[in-house]
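seq as requested:
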Amino acid sequence: MNLREQILSIKPKVRTIKVGEQEFFIREFNVGEMNQHYFGQQQQLYKLAEEQGIELDLDDEAELTKQLAKVYDPYKLARTLASRLCDKEGNNIFDINNKEDLEQLSKLDKSIFSSLESSLLEEQPKNSQPDVSSK
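struct tokens:
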């Protein structure tokens, strides 16, 4: 396997989360989803602001930030679920751009989102306490 193939073989990790007695699969973001998360999210907020009649001041970054904070995204949590829930091979089950999927996810019991959130918090590095012997 050459270097290119080695790099392209690295896929996002898939894990299970437990919701009640059921287990589901979630996976980490891929590069495209990270790009969407960082850069596409603001475009989504611009679109929602326009739909909600909020006129944005694109020339004043501080004012724009305040304005975007007031934009309501009815599918923010559903999009998070759609981007993470997958089958055991890591293939998404839901489409983050499909309004019907997002509406269905929005109707789920909050326990599935709470379980996902807990699982994501567990994967973040913990703040370690300084070793007593290092003093």
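Confidence is low (pLDDT under 50) at residues 128-135.
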